[in-house]
Write a structure and sequence with these properties.
The complex is a heterodimer of chains A (261) and B (393).
Chain A (H helix, E strand, L loop, with lengths): L4 E7 L2 E8 L4 E5 L10 H7 L3 E5 L16 H15 L5 E5 L1 H12 L7 E4 L19 H8 L3 H9 L4 H18 L9 H4 L7 E6 L9 H8 L3 E6 L6 H4 L1 H16 L1
Parallel strand pairs in A: 3-4, 3-5, 5-6, 6-7, 7-8
Antiparallel strand pairs in A: 1-2, 2-4
Helix pairs in contact in A: 1-10, 2-3, 4-5
Chain B lengths: L1 E5 L9 H4 L16 H20 L4 E3 L14 H11 L7 E7 L7 H13 L4 E6 L4 H6 L6 H17 L4 E4 L4 E5 L13 E5 L3 H8 L7 E4 L3 H17 L9 E9 L3 H19 L4 H4 L7 H10 L10 H7 L3 E3 L1 H15 L3 E5 L7 H19 L6 H7 L1
Parallel strand pairs in B: 1-2, 1-11, 3-4, 4-7, 7-8, 8-9, 9-10, 9-11
Antiparallel strand pairs in B: 5-6
The chains are: A alpha/beta (261), B alpha/beta (393).
Chain lengths: 261, 393
């Protein structure tokens, strides 16, 4: 699999880093709070069937941190601008955690923006009485242990060397994550009221052992999204696309195929 | 030199063995560990200690604000300030509130109002301290630390305008919006109560505080003496950049103080209590003390790279003495420490934390009295003109 092509485009005065790979119908991947610090095997699997587009959100990775980015709504509306600029038509979107939240916020603002939505353990909703984990209080070690079900993956993450460049990216990503999700912590109380606007089919993929956003939260999405299904993954934590890349890529492919059949 | 007595009002009866099972003494420490029967008596004890300091001749008695912690039981410092004002009625003692944490508030006008009330109640004896609150308090309040600096500056500007501009007027800001700003009562001191900026030191804050339109005294809190002096120096350099010489009255040092008959007795009597302050009450993991945005990305990276800092590393009395984060000893030793620091920086505001950690009442009273009677009088003239000095002597 060839390396992804890296490019920059300027939208609303902010220089945005975008990686593309593969051929086929476009699939926009919206990353989670950790950003995309390495190109994942999951992306290569998707690139076999799609042209996958992986932008760094504004304020993350190699993208600028624009002054207009103040809250999750700004991130969502930015993506609607980006879709127009890229002239992608109605791409499928897959969003993980924070990225799933942004996808949903964008979709309620423009219900015809996306073909199909795959939401991987999305943030964005609250379930009263079932607290989500607090990633802002976790140490890096705790975070690794809490994000993965497979603790050997956590050990790898903890042991991985942190270069100066990677440290810069991690801090930058964490700052923007706080900007978007500190308060209310990981949710927007308004979102639930407007999820009914998303008429596009949606599939939720959730690790049964998610310690950040428990799988119970999927029920809140199913209740409010008109056309949604749930694929629960046993023995999987908060990052299904990292922990179970084959299963997730395969689910996205099948889901997209339903759209054309 | 001016001398102020300062209190955090820690919950000194805390079951440390139990408390140490938790991530921090802040925000996540279960409040079942607070016993109101003991706490109610503590408030009385601590208020009496500050009143004692006022009677012994300290220039001011100071309170401050902290939330959800055994480190300090004053989430609403103005309540204590109000009592101190009444207990020092007829005296000249200043009442610095150092300070209110502005970014944590959704309506900063409450601070303009409450400080104005206190200024009236005290006939103009308060000092208005403004702080950002420490990192943990962004966990406690929910306020987004990314906007900490923005909210601090905006709230400060709004409060100063509320005190100095005829009301009513409108205020439109990024974080705060008011159709009517019209503070009743107005403060007694003109144009407004003096402002202090307590800080652990940052270039950005120094530049802001030293600006000619503010010239706010900068009080460095609980830092190693070399850091204190470095920040004083930075302030002075910054003032020169602005085209003026900073007065020693713009430079403050806030430090725990313990005085006893001899150095040996002082160290022996205070060791466990000062270690409790630094190693227990102040213990916070980095994620709590430095939430994202509380510092710049650059500072955050530097801190993460060293993983040092007084809030995370356990310290022994020996470390504390070496760093000079604690002014401890016989009256002569403590005098010399203050004189030596003064000789290097010229600071003229000493904020002495008279109680710290688990230090019990009899020791607080003894130390405070020794400090007032055997340290303060001989240092009064420090930094004053010859005329003032001879008047003081």
């Amino acid at each position: 699999m060839p390396d992804p092509k890296s490019e920059f485009l300027t939208i609303l005065g902010a220089r945005i880093h975008l990686r593309r790979a593969g051929k086929g119908p476009p699939l926009l991947f919206l990353h989670g709070a950790g950003g995309v610090t390495v190109w994942l095997p999951f992306f290569d699997k998707l690139a076999e069937s799609f042209e996958i587009l992986v932008p760094d959100h504004p304020g993350f990775g190699r993208s600028d941190t624009p002054p207009w980015l103040r809250n999750i709504g700004d991130a969502a509306l930015y993506y609607l601008d980006l879709l127009e600029a890229l002239k992608l038509g109605r791409p499928h979107v897959a969003g993980a955690s924070l990225g799933g939240w942004i996808a949903a916020e964008a979709a309620v603002r423009n219900p015809t923006a996306f073909g199909r939505l795959t939401l991987l353990a999305p943030a964005g909703l609250r379930v009263v009485g079932v607290p989500a984990g607090d990633p802002f209080i976790w140490s890096p070690e705790e975070q690794a242990r809490n994000l993965y079900f497979d603790q050997s993956l956590a050990e790898q993450a903890i042991a991985a060397p942190v270069t100066s460049e990677l440290a810069d990216l991690q801090i930058k990503n964490r700052f923007t994550f706080a900007r978007l999700a500190w308060q209310p912590r990981l949710f927007n109380p308004d979102l639930e009221r407007w999820l009914h606007r998303i008429k596009a089919p949606a599939q939720l993929i959730w690790g049964n052992e998610d310690k950040l956003i428990p799988v119970t939260y999927a029920q809140a999405w199913l209740k409010n999204l008109p056309r949604a299904s749930l694929l629960p993954l046993p023995q999987c934590g908060h990052l299904p696309h990292v922990e179970r890349p084959d299963a997730v890529a395969s689910a996205i492919r099948s889901f997209a195929r339903e759209a054309v059949s | 030199m001016k001398f102020h007595a300062f209190h955090l009002m820690p919950y000194r009866h805390l079951d440390m063995a139990e408390a140490n099972k938790y991530r921090s003494y802040w925000s996540v420490l279960p409040n079942r560990l607070y016993d109101p029967a003991l706490g109610a008596d503590l408030y009385q004890e601590y208020i009496d200690q500050l009143v004692l300091a006022a009677k012994l001749g300290f220039d001011g008695v100071c309170v401050n604000e902290h939330h959800q912690t055994a480190y300090g039981l004053m989430p609403a410092p103005n309540l204590i300030a109000s009592i101190l004002i009444d207990r020092t009625r007829g005296m000249k003692t200043k009442i610095p509130i150092i300070g209110r944490a502005l970014p944590l508030l959704n309506n900063p006008l409450t601070v303009a109002e409450e400080y104005a009330m206190l200024d009236n109640l005290s006939h103009g004896r308060i000092v208005a301290g403004f702080v950002r609150g420490i990192g943990c308090e962004y966990h406690a309040s929910g306020v987004n630390p990314i906007y900490s600096h923005e909210r601090f500056h905006e709230a400060h500007d709004l409060i100063i305008r509320a005190w100095t501009e005829p009301g009513p007027f409108e205020y439109e800001g990024e974080h705060y919006n008011f159709r009517y700003v019209n503070t009743w009562p107005r403060p007694v001191q003109r144009p407004h109560p003096p402002v202090w900026i307590p800080s652990q030191g940052s270039g950005e804050t120094i530049e802001w505080a030293a600006a000619p339109e503010r010239k706010y005294p900068f009080i460095i809190t609980f830092s190693p003496i070399e850091s204190v002096l470095r920040f004083h120096d930075l302030y002075k350099q910054q003032a020169r950049t602005f085209g003026y010489e900073a007065d020693g009255g713009q430079l403050g040092w806030a430090v725990p103080v313990y005085v006893a008959e001899t150095d040996e007795i002082a160290i022996r009597e205070s060791a466990a209590h000062i270690e409790a302050l630094f190693n227990n009450f102040l213990y916070m993991p980095l994620e709590m003390v430095l939430p994202p945005g509380y510092t710049s990305i650059k500072s955050m990276k530097a801190i993460l790279a060293t993983k040092k800092g007084m809030t995370t590393a356990k310290q022994t009395m020996k470390d504390i003495l070496e760093k000079g984060t604690f002014a401890v000893g016989s009256p002569a030793t403590v005098r010399e420490k203050i004189e030596a620091a003064h000789a290097r920086s010229g600071f003229k505001v000493l904020v002495a934390m008279i109680q710290f950690g688990t230090l019990p009442d009899p020791l607080v009273r003894k130390s405070t009295q020794l400090f007032a009677e055997e340290v303060m009088p001989k240092l009064r003239g420090l930094g004053e003109s010859a005329q003032v000095r001879s008047a003081a002597e």
